[in-house]
Amino acid sequence: MAGVHLGKHVSSPYFKWQGLNGKSEVYAVNMPQGYGTGMLLEPTKEFVEGRLDPAIEFIQQFGDNREVLIPSGNDQLAIIKDFSEKITKINTIGKYTYELSTYADFLEYVKALPDLETYQGEFRSPVLARVHKTIGSSRMDIKLKSAQLEAKLLYRIEPMLVIAKKAGIHISERLLMTAWKKVLEGAAHDSLGGCVSDTVAEDILHRFKEAEEIADSIENTISKKLAEALGLSNQEILLFNTALTTFEGTKEVQVISPTKQISFPDHPEAVIVEADYVEARENVLFETPAGNEYIEEPGYYLLRIQLPVKLPGLSYQVVSFHSTTQEFPSMEQKPTAQISNDFITVSFENGVLTAETAFGKRIEQFLSFVDEANAGDTYDFSPLVGDTPVKLTFQTAEISTAKGVQKMKLTGSYTLPYDLENRLLTPHKEGVLQLTATLTLKTGDPLLHGELHVKNSLRSHRLRLLVETGIETDHNHASLPFGFIKRTKGVPADWEATYSEMPIDIEPLEQNISVSDEEAVCSVFTKGIKEYQHQGTALALTLLATTDQLGKPDLVYRPGRASGDTTKRGHILMATEKAQLMGDWNYDFAISFAQGAFSEKNTAQLGKYFAAENVDYLRQDYNYFLHRLDNKIQSTGQQLTVPQTLSVISLPEDILVSACHPSYYKQDQYLIRIENPTSEAIEIPTILQQAEQINALEEIQEAKRNVPAYSALTFRLPL
């Protein structure tokens, strides 16, 4: 644990680390000098007096411990031969007695220590070692793809496998395991951190590509086989709810049709939000039993349709449409640069984007950007001395509306210095940064949804989205797995005297970040953006932090040696051209404002709502490549009897589910994991009270009557 501040967090390197609920705890063993303290073990006076004995004395200054742990290892370290014999010789040289042991044995010693301290909180204080506080935005391509894949597996594929099993479609769980393994192979700390060479980054992204292909293939197989079993036509959409609670709101579905003149008789408020026309093609090969023919393939529309629906938990149902002579409602351009619903109004006038909440809070320059030079590397952002950050605001706005939905498309194109060298030159070489944001408001939806597109042609820079909250406070609440953490903004003025790198208040988030006072709360929800900074009354979320080097020495934020050993003897300064992230990048986010103080429960509920997936399927012969395997999945002739609608289980709306997937050990059973990210225990829903409670290995546990604060419980049920 590199981020332990000995003397502040705890006085001894051996202590108990307590969870958010104040009850869960683990024994912690800190290695103040890292895991290479005893590496290159040699029974010489120079090694013992110059390295080993001083390590003991350094650790002993933090607590009165009769025994201390000296790890002997490092990255890619060769096996130390004659280990025991070397320790015996060392004991004749030094001031202390050494013995060969194991981590498990030392942990038993720690557990027996009297009056162990307890610490609750993070380990992100770079006192004795670097923690790379800004690595959360390095190689954002890796981070965005990892987050997208995790969400796809958790919120689409795993629940769909449960639905499929219930319907009699069996796909091996080992295929799911293979996808997860590919994702997790890219989750090692350097890999997901992004502090790797370009060749390693390529390997990571290739594993993600393999995982995504497996996931898409599973979804395509389930959807197509269900549609075939149901005998659906090309005017019947198979619509899924992969959440375990009832969904009531709007889903977007894809329709492929030769005309836009269609109708959803059971959904009169449906509306086209996007339409693309694919032109007809001549001389297209058509294989028939009588031989090959060459035909004219008709043109067709790819339509995205917003559909108001109500779906029970973990379910599917069929939605029908038909051709008509009437034009289907679609988005219409409006001259006024304003969108609004019952929760918020957003307007654009004279280059100023303004938000006004339903409870009267007005915020100008609501969304903007800051671009600045990045003199850092793949481990850390660092500013360029002499550079001035540039604030960017939107330049144009277009409004389109339809019943139940309003959209504002904001654009901007900015000419900026091309690279680090040109940031300080006049005149200088320039590049163009293009930004497009589409803000969407829906009737009855408390979230302002945002889709952001960045076209990057600049090098070595950091781009951040600024969300102005209008809330004066020095603290914020960031989401964690199964909870929230309260952080205070600010950096110590004399940090160089204590820290090995600047303890910059740039922090990670799991999915959302909130600022609040007693009157209002503003929450920002993201998909893949993992780094924020609380500045004044604004939240700055990092979109890109591009660089040309693996590791650099003597950074403003990180003085001294280069991380990544690039200034170590025999090593090289390694260029990372692909970490410049040139090209197109897309981000999804949402923002909510509410009256009153911050609520863990309400924020978590909104987070789950934001994470919900749109999953639908339409059998059609216009384009076999809209889904990965439509052109390859053949009918097996197996007769399946499946209902027109199916719901596996529907939990109460206030229950938060973090996972639902088939059992890996029991046939025809599945798992539900309920999370409680709040400070109060919650009651287990009646429908789950008789289910087996298990751990991550699916071992049956003693049943609990509620889900403890900041915790989770896993249940196993029959299908």
Automatic annotation (TrEMBL):
<dbReference type="GO" id="GO:0004559">
    <property type="term" value="F:alpha-mannosidase activity"/>
</dbReference>
<dbReference type="InterPro" id="IPR037094">
    <property type="entry name" value="Glyco_hydro_38_cen_sf"/>
</dbReference>
<dbReference type="InterPro" id="IPR028995">
    <property type="entry name" value="Glyco_hydro_57/38_cen_sf"/>
</dbReference>
<dbReference type="InterPro" id="IPR011682">
    <property type="entry name" value="Glyco_hydro_38_C"/>
</dbReference>
<dbReference type="GO" id="GO:0006013">
    <property type="term" value="P:mannose metabolic process"/>
</dbReference>
<keyword id="KW-0479">Metal-binding</keyword>
<dbReference type="GO" id="GO:0009313">
    <property type="term" value="P:oligosaccharide catabolic process"/>
</dbReference>
<feature type="domain" description="Glycoside hydrolase family 38 central">
    <location>
        <begin position="130"/>
        <end position="208"/>
    </location>
</feature>
<keyword id="KW-0378">Hydrolase</keyword>
<dbReference type="InterPro" id="IPR027291">
    <property type="entry name" value="Glyco_hydro_38_N_sf"/>
</dbReference>
<dbReference type="Pfam" id="PF07748">
    <property type="entry name" value="Glyco_hydro_38C"/>
</dbReference>
<dbReference type="InterPro" id="IPR015341">
    <property type="entry name" value="Glyco_hydro_38_cen"/>
</dbReference>
<protein>
    <submittedName>
        <fullName>Mannosylglycerate hydrolase</fullName>
        <ecNumber>3.2.1.170</ecNumber>
    </submittedName>
</protein>
<dbReference type="GO" id="GO:0030246">
    <property type="term" value="F:carbohydrate binding"/>
</dbReference>
<dbReference type="GO" id="GO:0102546">
    <property type="term" value="F:mannosylglycerate hydrolase activity"/>
</dbReference>
<dbReference type="GO" id="GO:0046872">
    <property type="term" value="F:metal ion binding"/>
</dbReference>
<dbReference type="Pfam" id="PF09261">
    <property type="entry name" value="Alpha-mann_mid"/>
</dbReference>
<dbReference type="InterPro" id="IPR011013">
    <property type="entry name" value="Gal_mutarotase_sf_dom"/>
</dbReference>
<keyword id="KW-0326">Glycosidase</keyword>
